[in-house]
């Protein structure tokens, strides 16, 4: 993930201070947790809360949990720039697309599609900011898109096919835009930042509802849908867990740790999500990757690592 230039002490391989070690452990934990995020989403689907519905309930619950924190620090929301606010909300929208994609698509494939973010970041920098393309950034694009083709080929086509694939791809592209804006303009703290993040997710879910879950906007059909929810208290527990553990706690950890870690170290540690997600889906969801997809996954991860490791010139200042 592109960001400010780092010093040699900030590089991923430099000895870490106590604060950096604590933040690093927090990012590893948060990344690992997001590797299991498919579990509550799929559980809600089993309780007839699939599609947009389950993810919308999670995001609304997260808003309610974070509302007291956001209210306490509302002065930060008032002082924040419009670009910062929009960027954070777009980040939440990206995560909503990712959450819904996990219902429609193969877990490991959706995660890898999301982690094509370095490709979109590079293209944004080239065509929006007019930055020149270095050989290394061109290699990131080639590896990322090559990996995408191999991952998709495991399903019979090198292109995304169902709504899960397209939503996963769109979530990564939108996250590239949002994260770029947040790096430049975001001044919010963990609590109010996560609250606005969840608000953006709710808005995205409402916009997607007519296309993916049109029955939710028809009162009679919505009542019928609610009446068939299986084990509503169990479903409510999963929604609360997803909102509290993933959308509130882990996002707050990421926001806090980002202030203590260099972008390179942060980006590499977040790769724990990919590893945990791929292996957990294979073990517990019965969705292993084919060998060609594993090779593609390796290319996508390589592109992401190339994106975040500082060049010698950057590392030495």
UniProtKB/TrEMBL annotation:
Protein name according to UniProt: Multidrug DMT transporter permease
PANTHER family with a match to the protein in the record: ACYL-MALONYL CONDENSING ENZYME-RELATED (PTHR22911)
EamA domain location: 25-152
Organism: Salinicola rhizosphaerae
TM regions (residue ranges): 20-39, 51-71, 91-116, 194-213, 233-259, 266-284, 290-309
Keywords: Membrane, Transmembrane, Transmembrane helix
Pfam family, one: EamA
Domain of life according to the entry: Bacteria
Listed InterPro entries: EamA_dom, EmrE-like
């Amino acid at each position: 993930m592109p960001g400010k230039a780092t010093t040699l002490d900030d590089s991923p391989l430099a000895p870490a201070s106590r604060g950096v070690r604590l933040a690093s452990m927090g990012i590893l934990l948060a990344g690992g947790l997001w590797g299991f995020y498919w579990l509550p989403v799929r559980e809600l689907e089993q309780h007839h809360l699939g599609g947009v519905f389950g993810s919308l309930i999670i995001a609304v619950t997260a808003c309610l949990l974070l509302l007291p924190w956001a209210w306490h620090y509302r002065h930060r929301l008032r002082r924040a720039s419009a670009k910062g606010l929009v960027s954070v909300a777009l980040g939440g929208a990206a995560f909503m697309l990712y959450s819904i994609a996990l219902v429609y698509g193969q877990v490991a494939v959706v995660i890898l599609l999301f982690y094509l973010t370095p490709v979109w970041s590079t293209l944004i920098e080239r065509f929006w900011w007019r930055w020149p393309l270095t050989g290394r950034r061109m290699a990131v694009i080639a590896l990322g898109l090559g990996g995408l083709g191999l991952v998709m080929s495991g399903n019979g086509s090198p292109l995304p096919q169902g709504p899960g694939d397209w939503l996963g791809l769109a979530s990564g592209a939108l996250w590239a835009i949002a994260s770029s804006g947040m790096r430049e303009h975001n001044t919010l703290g963990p609590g109010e930042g996560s609250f606005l993040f969840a608000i953006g997710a709710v808005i995205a879910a409402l916009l997607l509802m007519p296309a993916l879950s049109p029955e939710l906007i028809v009162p009679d059909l919505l009542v019928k849908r609610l009446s068939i929810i299986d084990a509503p208290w169990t479903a409510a527990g999963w929604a609360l867990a997803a909102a509290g553990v993933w959308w509130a706690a882990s996002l707050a950890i990421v926001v806090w740790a980002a202030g203590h870690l260099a972008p390179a170290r942060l980006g590499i540690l977040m790769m724990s999500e990919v590893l945990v997600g791929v292996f957990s889906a294979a073990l517990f969801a019965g969705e292993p990757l084919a060998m060609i997809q594993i090779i593609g996954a390796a290319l996508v991860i390589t592109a992401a690592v190339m994106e975040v490791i500082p060049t010698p010139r950057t590392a030495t200042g």
